[in-house]
């Protein structure tokens, strides 16, 4: 069953026009240049058209060349400024997490290998090798994070350090050297030195560990900056924002075309 037409609003408009005409009031409002310059006219009961968003900015520019990116990624060492920013460096989660990973790898090495090393007699190199072959994971983690030079750990330090990666590598190298010194004094340290003199291995760790960590951390920080310069972020496409799209008209209840209510007037 079709809905009955609502004519109350139409009758009210007719009476309003008749009263104004009887009083001599002109109900027509001429359009002027000011009104034409305002927002575009819309039909009664529809939502206003959203203002157009400004045009998106153009591309940032051509991508820099590989050689220019390699040169621009280099950062000189500012000793005073880098040392002054040491507290902020130590507060970065990536730096602290990498150092904690080196300590955890050392503890894992001792816990796993110490019980098996006790049954290997002195001078039995093949017995030490069999202990490592039976479970190679602790030895692999220690080789990456602690044994000089600790390349993997220093690379992570350079990647996570937002500033002064070389200083973060130096600190990590000192921590790794300390862990190596403690390991050599445990029964599991025989896997690192054999049955030889431990002094030579400790000196090697303190000489190569910090220096190698500085080199790897600085190279990692340079490589991270190079990747950022060589691959700039993409620019948004023009017109992709939802604000630039015109809002669709929303019909209200009873919003019927005027010619159907007023008989075509």
Key attributes of the depicted protein:
265 residues; mainly alpha; 13 helices
Shape: elongated
Major beta-sheet overview: none
Q: Which oligomerization state do the chains in this entry correspond to?
A: single chain
Helix share of residues?
55-70%
What structural class is derived from the secondary structure elements? mainly alpha
What this model shows, in words?
With 265 residues, the chain is mainly alpha-helical. The chain has a domain at 101-230. 58% of the residues lie in helices and 0% in strands. α9 runs antiparallel to α10 (165-184). The chain is elongated, with a radius of gyration of 39 Å. Residues 29-41, 53-58 and 242-246 have low confidence and may be disordered.
Précis, in short:
The chain has 265 residues and is mostly helical. Helix content is 58%, strand content 0%. The chain has a domain at 101-230.
Topology:
Blueprint: H1 8-23, H2 33-37, H3 66-72, H4 79-84, H5 86-90, H6 93-117, H7 125-134, H8 137-145, H9 151-160, H10 165-184, H11 190-193, H12 198-230, H13 258-261
